[in-house]
Write a structure and sequence with these properties.
Radius of gyration: 24 Å
Number of domains: 2
Distance between the termini: 19 Å
Number of strands: 19
Helix content: 10-25%
Bound molecules: FE2/S2 (inorganic) cluster, fe (ii) ion
CATH class of the largest domain: Alpha Beta
Number of helices: 12
CATH architecture of the largest domain: Alpha-Beta Complex
Length: 475
């Protein structure tokens, strides 16, 4: 158990009432998933990549975009996943739909802009056109097609649909038209996050990183905190990731990273150094009270002061402090939704990570990074920096990639995370690689790969999901 966990358990000021989101402390155990090594082939085999496409990506719910991207009829958003391009658009009838972004004439990619507002989508090759509800508007030179002698089969030539749904202010999509609603798919894990009110959050930056490693290396890198001590020497000065609580929630999972403390792996946890003060005491967001600015206690205890403060203003803030357990007020509730989305946040804001496979190459992935803020109600949509794809092979300046929306110290943490992708991809291919040995702090990785295997085997499907407590130890 992390020392901070004991500090919180024994804290006399702990708030004792019930909250919608279950606390991590005291810990609930997880069932034993064994000690098998994780093979390397799953990270580079084209056959495994194809099986993932057939049984995982095309059968599960994926994050597409913020719902507020579709603020008017005709507003559209193009998103790529694997070999597919998708077109999401609000129709003139106000319904948001999703389609394969595919010209039905000879298969060109239909819409070649990322976003915009259109009532008609025109293929640049021969000029076939579709309405913003996906129906065919015009087959150019229809008289040249003998197939249309008896009329144009407009139904057959509509854009092929994907299923869409909304949750948490996000548009989600599923290539399986029979899929259960996204809320049911997210299940207990989704329910636990409802209190954050993501619908009202603002997206303030979205950037994509193309890394030379399989998408699962990216997933693995952001779903354990065991690497903090070695890879992120700055981060352990203002956060705790050592021996933290983890819970498996059906096919999804969560962990608790502690903010505004000094990790127990650091010897001096008391002194308020410049770095600690910068990351723990300053007003990190302009709209937040600066209560801890005058803090004079031990550096490792800043979080307690913040919990105390936030609890004291719970009646007077638009932030949902009142509905949140003590841990949630300050610490990082980190959830991953199978297979491709992570949401990690405090009440004030957070990040969403999305992991995507390359179209054809298991050695390349896309890591999408969204920064969101929970601003006071009534603030209009924020103008944000343009979305770009930053490619590892070009060299990435992570601080510059985020502009001024991300602290350079945190941008450097992301640089450190990205730095292992190419070398991990190389290493798992070695003839001498015996498979990964995973510790209990890497349990989410073990569980995640097990879920992929279960989906590929067909023993878990979206229609037969394990309940949210399937892998938790019952008392
Ligand atoms: S390929 Fe699109 S109109 Fe011909
Ligand atoms: Fe990391």
């Amino acid at each position: 158990m992390a020392k901070i966990e004991r500090d919180l358990l024994e804290w006399p000021e702990r708030t004792e009432r019930s909250f919608p989101t279950p606390a991590f402390i005291p810990r609930v155990g997880n069932v034993d998933l064994g000690l098998d090594r994780l093979d390397g082939e799953r990270y580079y085999s084209p056959e495994f990549m194809q099986a993932e496409w057939d049984k995982v990506w095309t059968k599960t719910w994926q994050l597409a975009a913020r719902v507020d991207e579709f603020s008017e009829p005709g507003a559209f958003y193009v998103h790529e996943l694997g070999k597919e391009s998708f077109l999401f658009v609000r129709g003139d009838d106000d319904e948001i739909r999703g389609f394969y972004n595919l010209c039905q004439h000879r298969g060109n990619v239909l819409c070649q802009a990322d976003t915009g507002v259109l009532d008609t989508f025109t293929c640049p090759f021969h000029g076939w056109q579709w309405n913003n509800d996906g129906t065919l508007k015009r087959a150019a030179g229809a008289e040249l097609f003998r197939q249309f002698d008896n009329g144009i089969p407009t139904e057959e030539l509509g854009l092929p649909a994907v299923k869409v749904d909304t949750w948490g202010g996000w548009l989600w999509f599923n290539m399986d038209l029979e899929a259960i609603p996204v809320k049911d798919y997210l299940g207990e894990a989704g329910r636990q996050l409802e209190v954050y009110g993501f619908e009202g959050w603002h997206l303030i930056n979205y950037q994509t990183f193309e890394w030379n490693g399989n998408w699962k290396h990216a997933w693995d890198a952001f779903n354990e905190s065991y690497h903090f001590a070695e890879l992120h020497p700055d981060m352990i000065e203002f956060g705790e990731g050592h021996d933290i609580p983890i819970e498996l929630l059906g096919i999804h999972s969560r962990m608790l990273n502690f903010n505004r403390t000094v990790s127990q792996v650091v010897e001096d946890r008391d002194t308020m150094t410049d770095l600690r003060a910068h990351m723990m005491l300053r007003a990190q967001e302009g709209w937040r009270d600066k209560e801890t600015a005058s803090f004079s206690g031990k550096a490792k205890d800043v979080h307690l002061e913040e919990i105390r403060h936030r609890r004291s203003i719970e009646e007077d803030t638009y932030l949902p402090y009142k509905q949140m357990n003590d841990e949630q007020l300050v610490h990082q509730y980190h959830y991953s939704f199978f297979p491709g989305a992570t949401m990690t946040q405090t009440p004030e804001g957070g990040a969403v990570f999305r992991y995507r496979p390359h179209a054809t190459d298991p050695n390349i992935c896309y890591y999408d990074f969204f920064i969101l803020a929970h601003l006071p109600p009534g603030i209009p949509k924020i103008e944000r920096p343009p979305h770009r794809v930053h490619r590892h092979v070009d060299g990435i300046d992570y601080a510059a990639a985020f502009g001024n929306t991300f602290d350079p110290i945190l941008a450097n943490v992301l640089r450190q995370d990205g730095s292992n992708m190419t070398t991990m991809q190389a290493g798992v291919k070695s003839d001498a690689f015996k498979g990964m040995i995973l510790c209990d702090q890497e349990l989410r990785i073990r569980h995640f790969h097990m879920m992929i295997d279960e989906f590929i085997a067909g023993s878990i499907t979206t229609d037969s999901l394990p309940p949210g407590d399937a892998y938790l130890l019952k008392d």
